[in-house]
Amino acid sequence: MDALKFLNDMRTKEIRDANGNVIHLEMRDLHADVYELIVWTGGRSNEIANLRPADIDFHAGSITFNAKVGIRLVPMDEPLAEVLNRLIKRLIKAADDTGREFLIPGGMLGIGQILRRWSQRLGVKVSARALRHSIAHGFVGSGLALDRTRDQLGHTNISTTDAYINPREKRKKQVLGAL
Predict the structure, then answer these.
(1) What's the pLDDT tens digit per position in 99-146?
(2) Rounded to whole angstroms, how far apart are CA atoms 82 and 36?
(3) Across the strands, what pairs with 63?
(4) Where does the chain show beta strands of DSSP type E?
(5) Closest Cα partner for 31 from 41, 21, 43?
(6) Rg of the chain, C-alpha, whole Å
(7) Residue among 141, 125, 132 nearest 161 (CA)
(8) 2-178: CATH homologous superfamily?
(9) CB-based contact 127:117 (threshold 8 Å)
(10) Residue 167 — very low, low, confident or very high, per pLDDT cuts 50/70/90?
(11) Which phi and psi angles does 49 have, rounded to 5°?
């Protein structure tokens, strides 16, 4: 299985369509919502796994992620708010039975299972990191400045964001530096 570094628009559509192949409607909807949450926020797996209802401010239109570099605010548009509302409703429904407090069932393992299923269906490795790279490309491709993209992804250093956008250039510099 080839590792997928960046998901172009066609691959992204294939992943969304693959969600329709999940037999159980509730699971298909959960898979689609997790995918959309990762894509629309650029969230890391651990940020998504640790997301709680208290981290979502519908009035301010933002999500607070506890990122590895501290707190990161991500703006929330209407489609993302709909996804989060569905996840919260699922959580409330499940909380009676499980007592869980996070939006994604199974946390990191749950996200990993969903990504593995997509990988198997598509024949490529789909990871949260590949989705983050894709969203970074989408941000820059749509005209968002590199420093705004850095802030959206929660990077402390602009060179990290630049490496997401230009990985071949980074590798070329490493090779040339070794000579």
Answers:
(1) 668 888 788 888 888 888 877 777 777 788 888 887 888 888 788 888
(2) 10
(3) 56, 74
(4) 2-3, 56-57, 62-67, 70-75, 124-125
(5) 21
(6) 17
(7) 132
(8) Intergrase catalytic core (1.10.443.10)
(9) no
(10) low
(11) -65, -30
The CB density around residue 51, as the number of other CB atoms within 10 Å, is 23
What residues does each domain of the chain span? 2-178
Residue 84 contacts residue 76 (beta carbons within 8 Å): yes
What is the residue whose two structure tokens read 């909807």?
A: 29
Enter the pTM of the model.
0.70
Q: Angle at CA 35, nearest 5°, toward 34 and 41?
A: 90
Question: Would you give the distance in Å from CA 20 to the centre of its chain?
Answer: 19
Euclidean distance between CA atoms 123 and 173, whole angstroms: 31
Q: How far is 161 from 140, CA to CA, in rounded Å?
A: 10
DSSP codes, 52-80: -GGGEETTTTEEEEEETTEEEEEE--HHH
